[in-house]
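Ligand-bound model needed. pyridoxal-5'-phosphate.
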Amino acid sequence: MHNVDIDLVEMSLDVIKYAISRISDTDPKLGFPKKAEELKALVGETVTPQGIGGEKAFALFRDVLVKASVPIDHPRHLAFVPASPTRAAVMFDLVTSATSVHGAFWLEGAGCIFAENQAMEWLVSLTGLPEGAFGVFTSGGTEANLSAMVTAREYWRSLDPSRAHARGIVITSNGAHSSVVAMAKVIDVDVVLIETENEMTGRQLDETIAKMSREERSRVFAVIATGGTTNSGIIDDLAGIADICEKHRLWFHVDAAYGGGALAASSVRHLFNGIERADSVTIDPHKWLFSPYDCGAVIYREPALARKAHAQEGSYLDIFSDEGAQGFNPSDYQIQLTRRVRGLPLWFSLATHGTKRYEQAIERGIELAQIAGRLITEAEHTELVREPSLSCVLYRRIGWKAEDYRAWTYANHKSGFALVAPTKWRNPEGPETVSRFCFINPDTTEKDIADILDSMK
Ligand SMILES: *Cc1c(COP(=O)(O)O)cnc(C)c1O
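Prediction:
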């Protein structure tokens, strides 16, 4: 719909000017949420029969709404898994939208999908998976994990018709991301959780399987290991788990949604050994590969198995599998049909900067975690809970209780200084509330970290 009433040039300038000033701002204001009623009072009704006009809507966005939202790339936003999309990627996200290409089928998106696939080839090369392995960009890690689980179960059922109605089981650890259990619910499978304080090992997996009844064992179809737990950056014993998966003929999925970026970091690459034996891998470029939201990825050792599970059929879709349309259809390998060409911003940024720059930026996140570890150890009022792992650091403020961490988090966020949130650490004595850093943004400085620790005095 091309609205002829608006002054296109003027609005474009406003939008592009805003976009440029926003991505040039390396220390953006850390917004704080407001209640919906407060926002309503400030903004009023914006969707009306006549419209309020682009100028007014944009002003409300810029002056009110954005200020009640958190910029994920703020250098002192170290909570959850922050992000730090490159300027090249953000600008190309605008270009991707402006280009209006349907990214599901080669027939419509050939050139753009070709570019996405070059970025994908680099991702696949990081995993060390053998020739033939390939993947697609998804909306995120959740969808990637779901797509992989669906593929695994379809494959398992295809091996034995008596499994057609059997309820499957996946084995994972308590360090796995919440999306694994959530997606298991979606496909109605049971989850067996291996309880562990640190990494899940092949041995623990083997023991868990050995303890199962014969009936239960017959229902296990996949093991989901984590390549960098979201809470503490722990990488499971991937090689050991691969051995046990081979022994029991189980699908081996590695969820490296957060940690996957570190595959490009030579200082820690060895920790992922065994990932090259996975049947499928999840990596989120929107976490540690500097892509804007939303961009996840799922990679398969044998993409044909994913195609069997996911390719949709329908009379109006027939033409897409026609001779003339032959090519790679991203929709055949994950659960989403219509999709934006969401890998394009990553492609443009990789093409612009080269993969070396990516390696350096990821190494910087790991280095920041080491620096934080040192500062925490040196300070009298703080101590490490465990050694930093990847770019995650768990630490305690000596003497603090859960309420103290909570109050400190809110105070820093409200004042616009920093967003650092507490988490829980599984001690043998029970869960303990501690503080946590996760570094992604290479522009975070040692001074940022020191200032945050000082604010705990
Ligand atoms: C973030 C994360 C997910 C979920 O990914 P989304 O992109 O948020 O859907 C899954 N697994 C791990 C290990 C994660 O860190």
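The pocket of pyridoxal-5'-phosphate is lined by residues 81, 140-142, 145, 177, 179, 226, 230, 255, 257-258, 284, 296 (CB under 6 Å).
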